[in-house]
Amino acid sequence: MNANTVLVGGVVVLLALGGLIFFTSQNMAPSSTATSTPTTIPGPTPQPSQAGVPVATTNSSVAPSDTTAVVSGKVTPKGALTMYWYEYGTTPNLGSKTSNQGVGSGYASVPAPDYITGLTKDTTYYFRLVAENQYGRTAGTAYTFRTTVGNPPPAGSAPTTKTLAASSVTRTAATLRGEVTPNKASTQYWFEYGKTANLGATTALVSVGDGSAKVTTSASIDNLDPATTYYFRMNAQNQFGTVNGAILTFKTAGPAVAAPSVSTLSAAFVATSSATLRATVDPNGAQTTYWFEYSTDSLFSATLLKTTPKKSAGSGTSALSESADISGLKPKTTYYFRIVAENSQDIVRGSRVTFKTK
Fold first, then answer.
1. Distance CA 35, CA 266 (A)
2. For the whole model, what pTM was predicted?
3. d(CA 104, CA 108)
4. pLDDT tens digits, residue range 178-191?
5. What CATH code would you report for 26-146?
6. Are the C-beta atoms of residues 292 and 305 closer than 8 Å to each other?
7. Fold that domain 160-251 belongs to in CATH
8. pLDDT for 65-106, tens place per residue?
Protein backbone atom coordinates (compact mmCIF):
# COMPACT_ATOMS: atom_id res chain seq x y z
CA MET A 1 0.00 0.00 0.00
CA ASN A 2 1.48 3.32 -0.99
CA ALA A 3 1.58 6.53 1.10
CA ASN A 4 -1.24 8.23 -0.87
CA THR A 5 -3.61 5.34 -0.17
CA VAL A 6 -2.90 5.53 3.57
CA LEU A 7 -3.49 9.31 3.61
CA VAL A 8 -6.86 9.08 1.82
CA GLY A 9 -8.01 6.28 4.11
CA GLY A 10 -7.16 8.32 7.17
CA VAL A 11 -9.17 11.33 5.94
CA VAL A 12 -12.24 9.15 5.31
CA VAL A 13 -12.08 7.71 8.86
CA LEU A 14 -11.77 11.20 10.40
CA LEU A 15 -14.75 12.53 8.41
CA ALA A 16 -16.88 9.56 9.48
CA LEU A 17 -16.01 10.04 13.16
CA GLY A 18 -16.73 13.78 12.93
CA GLY A 19 -20.18 13.14 11.48
CA LEU A 20 -21.00 10.63 14.24
CA ILE A 21 -19.94 13.06 16.97
CA PHE A 22 -22.07 15.90 15.46
CA PHE A 23 -25.17 13.66 15.19
CA THR A 24 -24.79 12.43 18.77
CA SER A 25 -24.36 15.95 20.17
CA GLN A 26 -27.45 17.24 18.36
CA ASN A 27 -29.85 14.38 19.13
CA MET A 28 -28.57 12.48 22.19
CA ALA A 29 -27.33 15.27 24.50
CA PRO A 30 -26.68 14.18 28.11
CA SER A 31 -29.12 15.22 30.82
CA SER A 32 -28.22 17.71 33.51
CA THR A 33 -29.73 18.29 36.91
CA ALA A 34 -30.09 22.07 36.70
CA THR A 35 -31.59 24.41 34.19
CA SER A 36 -32.19 28.17 34.14
CA THR A 37 -35.04 30.17 32.63
CA PRO A 38 -34.39 33.55 30.94
CA THR A 39 -35.71 36.45 33.00
CA THR A 40 -36.44 38.97 30.26
CA ILE A 41 -37.75 39.21 26.73
CA PRO A 42 -37.94 42.37 24.61
CA GLY A 43 -41.07 44.44 25.15
CA PRO A 44 -43.08 45.81 23.62
CA THR A 45 -42.35 43.64 20.64
CA PRO A 46 -42.29 44.96 17.05
CA GLN A 47 -44.99 44.03 14.62
CA PRO A 48 -43.58 42.59 11.37
CA SER A 49 -46.07 42.47 8.52
CA GLN A 50 -45.84 38.72 7.83
CA ALA A 51 -47.21 36.14 10.29
CA GLY A 52 -46.27 32.49 9.95
CA VAL A 53 -45.53 29.07 11.44
CA PRO A 54 -44.07 29.30 14.97
CA VAL A 55 -40.48 28.42 15.85
CA ALA A 56 -39.84 25.80 18.59
CA THR A 57 -36.41 25.29 20.17
CA THR A 58 -35.95 22.44 22.66
CA ASN A 59 -33.48 22.95 25.52
CA SER A 60 -31.33 19.86 26.05
CA SER A 61 -30.93 20.59 29.79
CA VAL A 62 -33.37 18.64 31.98
CA ALA A 63 -33.96 18.39 35.74
CA PRO A 64 -35.20 14.82 36.34
CA SER A 65 -36.41 13.13 39.54
CA ASP A 66 -37.53 9.56 40.20
CA THR A 67 -40.82 9.99 38.32
CA THR A 68 -40.83 13.55 36.90
CA ALA A 69 -38.76 15.87 34.73
CA VAL A 70 -38.58 19.66 34.37
CA VAL A 71 -38.06 20.48 30.68
CA SER A 72 -37.72 23.81 28.89
CA GLY A 73 -37.36 25.50 25.53
CA LYS A 74 -38.33 28.61 23.62
CA VAL A 75 -41.18 29.41 21.24
CA THR A 76 -41.52 32.31 18.78
CA PRO A 77 -45.27 32.63 17.99
CA LYS A 78 -44.68 34.56 14.71
CA GLY A 79 -47.81 36.72 14.86
CA ALA A 80 -50.60 34.22 15.65
CA LEU A 81 -51.96 32.77 18.90
CA THR A 82 -49.67 29.83 19.62
CA MET A 83 -49.84 26.76 21.86
CA TYR A 84 -46.93 24.56 22.92
CA TRP A 85 -46.51 21.11 24.49
CA TYR A 86 -43.88 18.41 24.91
CA GLU A 87 -43.94 15.00 23.30
CA TYR A 88 -42.08 12.24 25.16
CA GLY A 89 -41.67 8.48 25.42
CA THR A 90 -39.23 5.62 26.04
CA THR A 91 -38.52 5.24 22.31
CA PRO A 92 -37.71 7.74 19.53
CA ASN A 93 -41.35 7.35 18.45
CA LEU A 94 -42.34 9.25 21.62
CA GLY A 95 -46.10 8.58 22.02
CA SER A 96 -47.12 10.72 25.00
CA LYS A 97 -47.62 14.48 25.37
CA THR A 98 -48.14 17.14 28.01
CA SER A 99 -51.15 19.47 28.04
CA ASN A 100 -51.27 22.49 25.71
CA GLN A 101 -50.05 25.85 27.05
CA GLY A 102 -50.42 29.30 25.47
CA VAL A 103 -47.60 31.76 24.72
CA GLY A 104 -49.56 34.43 22.84
CA SER A 105 -49.01 35.79 19.36
CA GLY A 106 -45.97 38.05 19.56
CA TYR A 107 -42.81 38.01 17.48
CA ALA A 108 -40.36 37.64 20.38
CA SER A 109 -38.92 34.36 21.61
CA VAL A 110 -40.77 33.32 24.79
CA PRO A 111 -39.60 30.71 27.36
CA ALA A 112 -41.66 27.49 27.22
CA PRO A 113 -41.18 25.46 30.43
CA ASP A 114 -43.12 22.31 31.35
CA TYR A 115 -43.29 19.53 33.92
CA ILE A 116 -43.57 15.89 32.85
CA THR A 117 -45.00 13.52 35.48
CA GLY A 118 -45.89 9.85 35.81
CA LEU A 119 -42.50 8.56 34.61
CA THR A 120 -40.73 5.30 35.54
CA LYS A 121 -37.62 5.34 37.72
CA ASP A 122 -34.19 4.80 36.20
CA THR A 123 -35.51 4.95 32.62
CA THR A 124 -34.31 6.77 29.51
CA TYR A 125 -36.89 9.05 27.86
CA TYR A 126 -36.91 10.92 24.56
CA PHE A 127 -38.60 14.34 24.41
CA ARG A 128 -39.07 17.40 22.20
CA LEU A 129 -40.90 20.74 22.22
CA VAL A 130 -43.78 21.24 19.76
CA ALA A 131 -45.56 24.53 18.90
CA GLU A 132 -48.61 25.18 16.73
CA ASN A 133 -50.68 28.12 15.48
CA GLN A 134 -53.12 28.67 12.61
CA TYR A 135 -50.27 28.62 10.09
CA GLY A 136 -48.90 25.23 11.05
CA ARG A 137 -47.01 23.06 13.53
CA THR A 138 -43.29 22.77 14.17
CA ALA A 139 -41.20 20.50 16.41
CA GLY A 140 -37.87 21.18 18.05
CA THR A 141 -34.92 18.81 18.22
CA ALA A 142 -35.45 15.59 20.21
CA TYR A 143 -33.14 14.91 23.18
CA THR A 144 -32.99 12.31 25.95
CA PHE A 145 -32.87 12.28 29.73
CA ARG A 146 -32.86 9.53 32.33
CA THR A 147 -34.99 9.48 35.47
CA THR A 148 -33.20 8.97 38.79
CA VAL A 149 -33.48 6.69 41.80
CA GLY A 150 -34.00 8.21 45.24
CA ASN A 151 -34.47 11.78 44.00
CA PRO A 152 -37.93 13.17 44.98
CA PRO A 153 -39.94 15.50 42.70
CA PRO A 154 -39.35 19.26 43.16
CA ALA A 155 -41.59 21.24 45.49
CA GLY A 156 -44.08 23.73 44.08
CA SER A 157 -46.58 23.97 41.26
CA ALA A 158 -47.55 26.15 38.30
CA PRO A 159 -48.41 29.77 39.20
CA THR A 160 -51.93 31.08 39.75
CA THR A 161 -52.73 34.19 37.70
CA LYS A 162 -55.52 36.74 37.36
CA THR A 163 -55.87 39.66 34.94
CA LEU A 164 -57.22 42.84 36.57
CA ALA A 165 -58.81 45.92 35.00
CA ALA A 166 -56.40 48.43 33.42
CA SER A 167 -55.83 51.74 35.20
CA SER A 168 -54.48 55.23 34.40
CA VAL A 169 -55.87 55.00 30.87
CA THR A 170 -55.20 58.12 28.77
CA ARG A 171 -55.31 58.88 25.06
CA THR A 172 -52.01 57.08 24.37
CA ALA A 173 -51.06 55.13 27.52
CA ALA A 174 -52.37 52.73 30.16
CA THR A 175 -51.24 50.61 33.11
CA LEU A 176 -51.98 46.89 32.82
CA ARG A 177 -52.61 45.09 36.12
CA GLY A 178 -52.86 41.58 37.47
CA GLU A 179 -52.20 39.17 40.32
CA VAL A 180 -49.93 36.13 40.52
CA THR A 181 -49.17 33.52 43.18
CA PRO A 182 -45.78 31.83 42.52
CA ASN A 183 -46.77 28.63 44.40
CA LYS A 184 -43.26 28.06 45.81
CA ALA A 185 -41.40 28.09 42.49
CA SER A 186 -39.39 30.93 40.94
CA THR A 187 -41.96 32.74 38.79
CA GLN A 188 -42.02 35.52 36.19
CA TYR A 189 -44.93 37.34 34.56
CA TRP A 190 -45.64 39.49 31.51
CA PHE A 191 -48.58 41.06 29.71
CA GLU A 192 -49.79 40.69 26.12
CA TYR A 193 -51.90 43.36 24.44
CA GLY A 194 -53.22 44.41 21.03
CA LYS A 195 -56.14 45.81 19.08
CA THR A 196 -57.76 42.38 18.66
CA ALA A 197 -58.19 39.29 20.83
CA ASN A 198 -55.14 37.88 19.02
CA LEU A 199 -53.07 40.36 21.10
CA GLY A 200 -49.56 40.55 19.54
CA ALA A 201 -47.42 42.93 21.63
CA THR A 202 -45.73 41.91 24.89
CA THR A 203 -44.16 43.63 27.87
CA ALA A 204 -40.89 42.50 29.44
CA LEU A 205 -40.83 39.49 31.79
CA VAL A 206 -40.58 40.43 35.47
CA SER A 207 -39.60 38.10 38.32
CA VAL A 208 -41.85 37.83 41.40
CA GLY A 209 -39.82 35.28 43.36
CA ASP A 210 -40.84 31.85 44.69
CA GLY A 211 -43.17 32.66 47.56
CA SER A 212 -46.65 31.37 48.30
CA ALA A 213 -48.40 34.74 48.73
CA LYS A 214 -50.37 36.60 46.07
CA VAL A 215 -48.40 39.39 44.36
CA THR A 216 -49.94 42.43 42.62
CA THR A 217 -48.39 43.06 39.20
CA SER A 218 -48.44 45.90 36.68
CA ALA A 219 -46.82 47.17 33.48
CA SER A 220 -47.09 50.61 31.86
CA ILE A 221 -47.55 50.76 28.08
CA ASP A 222 -47.60 53.77 25.76
CA ASN A 223 -47.66 54.74 22.07
CA LEU A 224 -51.31 53.65 21.92
CA ASP A 225 -53.90 55.04 19.49
CA PRO A 226 -56.57 57.40 20.89
CA ALA A 227 -60.20 56.30 21.10
CA THR A 228 -59.22 52.65 20.50
CA THR A 229 -60.22 49.42 22.24
CA TYR A 230 -57.28 47.27 23.36
CA TYR A 231 -57.31 43.63 24.51
CA PHE A 232 -54.85 42.39 27.11
CA ARG A 233 -54.07 39.57 29.51
CA MET A 234 -51.49 38.67 32.15
CA ASN A 235 -49.34 35.54 31.81
CA ALA A 236 -47.08 33.88 34.39
CA GLN A 237 -44.73 30.90 34.28
CA ASN A 238 -42.34 28.91 36.39
CA GLN A 239 -40.62 25.58 35.86
CA PHE A 240 -43.97 23.79 36.13
CA GLY A 241 -45.51 25.59 33.14
CA THR A 242 -47.17 28.68 31.69
CA VAL A 243 -50.57 29.98 32.85
CA ASN A 244 -52.66 32.59 30.98
CA GLY A 245 -55.02 35.03 32.66
CA ALA A 246 -58.37 36.01 31.18
CA ILE A 247 -58.44 38.49 28.27
CA LEU A 248 -59.89 41.88 29.28
CA THR A 249 -60.31 45.16 27.37
CA PHE A 250 -59.91 48.89 27.89
CA LYS A 251 -60.50 51.87 25.60
CA THR A 252 -58.14 54.81 25.31
CA ALA A 253 -59.55 58.31 25.63
CA GLY A 254 -60.36 60.21 22.47
CA PRO A 255 -60.20 63.92 21.73
CA ALA A 256 -63.29 65.85 22.87
CA VAL A 257 -65.49 66.44 19.83
CA ALA A 258 -67.44 69.71 19.93
CA ALA A 259 -68.43 72.68 17.80
CA PRO A 260 -65.42 74.78 16.80
CA SER A 261 -64.25 77.67 18.96
CA VAL A 262 -63.42 80.90 17.09
CA SER A 263 -62.18 84.42 17.76
CA THR A 264 -62.13 87.26 15.24
CA LEU A 265 -58.93 89.34 15.43
CA SER A 266 -58.16 92.80 14.08
CA ALA A 267 -57.38 93.16 10.38
CA ALA A 268 -53.79 93.64 9.21
CA PHE A 269 -52.05 95.22 6.22
CA VAL A 270 -55.03 97.50 5.53
CA ALA A 271 -54.53 99.50 2.30
CA THR A 272 -56.78 101.53 -0.02
CA SER A 273 -58.32 98.44 -1.66
CA SER A 274 -57.07 95.41 0.28
CA ALA A 275 -56.61 93.95 3.77
CA THR A 276 -55.75 90.74 5.60
CA LEU A 277 -58.50 89.32 7.81
CA ARG A 278 -57.32 87.36 10.87
CA ALA A 279 -58.81 85.00 13.44
CA THR A 280 -58.19 81.89 15.53
CA VAL A 281 -60.01 78.59 15.04
CA ASP A 282 -60.04 75.56 17.37
CA PRO A 283 -61.60 72.51 15.62
CA ASN A 284 -62.27 70.81 18.98
CA GLY A 285 -61.49 67.34 17.65
CA ALA A 286 -63.66 67.31 14.51
CA GLN A 287 -62.72 68.03 10.90
CA THR A 288 -63.39 71.76 10.48
CA THR A 289 -63.56 74.30 7.65
CA TYR A 290 -63.50 78.07 8.06
CA TRP A 291 -64.05 81.25 6.03
CA PHE A 292 -64.55 84.99 6.59
CA GLU A 293 -67.67 87.04 5.96
CA TYR A 294 -67.23 90.78 5.25
CA SER A 295 -69.43 93.65 4.17
CA THR A 296 -69.96 97.41 4.29
CA ASP A 297 -73.26 96.61 6.04
CA SER A 298 -72.94 96.16 9.81
CA LEU A 299 -75.83 93.64 9.71
CA PHE A 300 -74.14 91.50 7.01
CA SER A 301 -77.23 91.61 4.78
CA ALA A 302 -77.23 89.03 2.04
CA THR A 303 -77.19 91.58 -0.80
CA LEU A 304 -73.89 93.12 0.28
CA LEU A 305 -72.29 90.08 1.96
CA LYS A 306 -69.03 88.68 0.59
CA THR A 307 -67.08 85.61 1.74
CA THR A 308 -63.57 84.27 1.37
CA PRO A 309 -62.98 80.74 0.03
CA LYS A 310 -63.43 77.91 2.53
CA LYS A 311 -60.25 76.38 3.98
CA SER A 312 -59.54 73.45 6.27
CA ALA A 313 -58.52 73.95 9.88
CA GLY A 314 -57.99 70.22 10.47
CA SER A 315 -59.39 68.27 13.41
CA GLY A 316 -57.04 69.14 16.24
CA THR A 317 -57.79 70.32 19.74
CA SER A 318 -55.90 73.61 19.91
CA ALA A 319 -56.52 77.11 18.55
CA LEU A 320 -54.86 77.87 15.20
CA SER A 321 -54.10 81.29 13.72
CA GLU A 322 -55.88 81.67 10.37
CA SER A 323 -56.06 84.50 7.85
CA ALA A 324 -57.36 85.44 4.41
CA ASP A 325 -56.39 88.24 2.03
CA ILE A 326 -59.19 90.27 0.42
CA SER A 327 -59.01 92.88 -2.34
CA GLY A 328 -61.27 95.03 -4.53
CA LEU A 329 -62.26 97.16 -1.57
CA LYS A 330 -63.41 100.77 -1.73
CA PRO A 331 -61.06 103.50 -0.42
CA LYS A 332 -61.84 105.32 2.83
CA THR A 333 -64.64 102.87 3.60
CA THR A 334 -65.53 101.08 6.82
CA TYR A 335 -65.81 97.30 6.52
CA TYR A 336 -67.24 94.78 8.95
CA PHE A 337 -65.98 91.17 9.11
CA ARG A 338 -66.10 88.01 11.22
CA ILE A 339 -64.75 84.46 11.21
CA VAL A 340 -67.07 81.51 10.48
CA ALA A 341 -66.20 77.85 11.18
CA GLU A 342 -68.11 74.62 10.65
CA ASN A 343 -67.68 70.98 11.69
CA SER A 344 -69.98 68.01 12.25
CA GLN A 345 -71.25 69.54 15.49
CA ASP A 346 -72.30 73.03 14.42
CA ILE A 347 -71.56 76.29 12.55
CA VAL A 348 -70.23 79.13 14.69
CA ARG A 349 -69.52 82.81 13.94
CA GLY A 350 -67.07 85.04 15.69
CA SER A 351 -67.67 88.55 16.94
CA ARG A 352 -67.90 91.45 14.47
CA VAL A 353 -64.72 93.52 13.95
CA THR A 354 -64.23 96.64 11.76
CA PHE A 355 -61.47 98.30 9.77
CA LYS A 356 -61.35 101.33 7.45
CA THR A 357 -59.49 101.36 4.16
CA LYS A 358 -57.08 104.16 3.41
1. 76
2. 0.62
3. 10
4. 999 999 999 999 99
5. 2.60.40.10
6. no
7. Immunoglobulin-like (2.60.40)
8. 999 999 999 999 999 999 999 999 999 999 999 999 999 998
